[in-house]
Automatic annotation (TrEMBL):
This is Uncharacterized protein. GO terms for molecular function: fatty acyl-CoA hydrolase activity. GO terms for biological process: acyl-CoA metabolic process; fatty acid metabolic process. Belongs to the C/M/P thioester hydrolase family. Transmembrane segments: none annotated. Residues 216-424 form the BAAT/Acyl-CoA thioester hydrolase C-terminal domain. Residues 21-152 form the Acyl-CoA thioester hydrolase/bile acid-CoA amino acid N-acetyltransferase domain.
């Protein structure tokens, strides 16, 4: 039997304004003891699509629900999950297919409304009156972080500068085959004390002009970051995701001008036509579509494009020549690239070359391809537009939501620890207290 509300329920979210990689506390008080309630989160994206998650809870003997401590009794996530109302978000029923939630304008927050409803409900949230509501702002840019457009030496990108005079370590941020200028990870890295530059390179104009063997564009981008007056020139890392991993590994091995202090590589490969023009690389993928498979929903499974791994060393980046620490992040259910097999081959090649002591591999069961900053939604599939042909396809990225979300949280912590270990000396760590 439903309890009677003597006083109005009170819902709080603390902090109500924080960074995307920060946890928050959601607490509901002034409920009747043992009251069944539903907590619901709702976000409207920059493309006007709505995303939601919900959890069923029962208040304790004092009429309180504490999301960080209480196990939910049903909903879009399982168990005791402090951030489940964020990472389990999905498009509301009736939404367009193939959606992916990505922040375009990092100067504004992701605004999430969290509401509490009487009883255990799973739909009809818009039509049902809420008992109480609160709003949380999730930011990629911390207060004082500056965003600077970069267009020089033929290079296009965005530079993010932490507050304070510096100098700071730098991170060159390379995204993958989806193309465009993706800024949100760089903004978050700057919020953690790094001058980070998101480099745009997956555009037809750039891809037709440069090859991975003639890497002047990347050398120019690296130099812009390295030579910035607020950057420690000898403490610059390169971070790559997906095809950005191939670029990062190739640059570290082949370019005499790109000497990163360390590398962080997510969900990537050391095997592609690494000496071909960038545009030809994607054309090569299109020409090998016979190796592409589809699941029962006609979603593209592209991991078989790169299998079996060739024995010919000319078809792979010579990772045995890497001279800096490398953190390699693997999702074991990646359906885009065969990253588990790639990780094994990279380790084998580096062992044979005698530099395997530089390699740290972190592998996550149940994680897919798009391992992004923590507490952001998991996408098992989404629409992707080819940077060369402009064709659309629904790609299967893989991953199970809870396991993938754990991978996002843990791999971000490992990434920050790895960057701090190799880019900050013990004497510099005290400087971060000003951030």
């Amino acid at each position: 039997m439903m309890g009677a509300f003597v006083t109005s329920p009170m819902l709080t979210v603390q902090p109500s304004r924080g960074l995307v990689d920060e946890k928050f506390q959601v607490v509901v008080k002034n409920l009747p003891p043992r009251q069944e309630v539903t907590l619901h989160s709702l976000h409207q994206s920059e493309r006007s699509d709505f995303w939601e998650a919900f959890g069923h809870y029962v208040s304790d003997g004092k009429g309180t629900v504490t999301v960080a401590e209480d196990a939910r009794a049903g909903g879009s996530y399982q168990g005791t999950e402090p951030m489940g109302l964020l990472w389990s978000m999905k498009p509301v029923p009736g939404s367009r297919t193939g959606l992916r939630l990505r922040k375009k304008d990092v100067r504004t927050p992701m605004v999430v409304q969290i509401s509490v409803y009487r009883g255990h409900i799973s739909h009809g949230f818009r039509e049902t009156p809420a008992l109480a509501c609160a709003v949380a702002e999730r930011w990629y840019m911390a207060p004082g972080v500056r965003r600077v457009d970069i267009e020089e030496k033929g290079v296009r990108g965005t530079l993010f500068l932490p507050p304070g005079p510096g100098p700071f370590p730098g991170v060159l941020d390379l995204w993958g085959g989806g193309g465009g200028l993706v800024e949100y990870r760089s903004a978050l890295l700057a919020s953690q004390g790094y001058v980070s530059m998101a480099l745009e390179y997956m555009t037809p104009k750039i891809m037709e002009k440069f090859t991975l063997k003639e890497y002047h564009y990347f050398e120019a981008g690296f130099a812009i970051l390295r030579d910035h007056p607020q950057v420690c020139s000898d403490r610059v890392a390169v971070l790559g995701l997906s095809f950005g991993t191939t670029v990062a590994l190739t640059m570290a091995v082949c370019s005499p001008l790109i000497k990163p202090r360390c590398l962080v590589c997510f969900s990537g490969s050391h095997q592609l036509p690494v000496e071909e023009p960038l545009s030809d690389v994607l054309n090569w993928i299109n020409k090998n579509r016979d190796k592409v498979q589809f699941d029962e929903e006609k979603r593209v499974i592209s991991r078989y494009l790169l299998l079996p791994i060739p024995s010919d060393p000319s078809k792979k980046v010579k990772v045995g020549k890497i001279q800096c620490p490398l953190l390699f992040i693997v999702g074991e259910d990646d359906q885009s690239w065969p990253v588990s097999e790639m990780a094994e081959d990279i380790e084998k090649m580096m062992k044979e070359a005698g530099n395997s002591h530089l390699l740290t591999t972190v592998s996550y069961p149940g994680a897919g391809h798009l391992i992004e900053p923590p507490y952001t939604p998991h996408f098992s599939s989404s629409i992707i537009v080819s940077a060369t042909t402009k064709e659309k396809a629904v790609m299967l990225w893989g991953g199970e939501t809870k396991a993938h979300s754990h991978a996002q949280e843990h791999s971000w912590q490992r990434t920050l620890a790895f960057l701090e270990q190799h880019l900050y000396s013990s004497g510099d760590k005290s400087d971060r207290s000003n951030l």
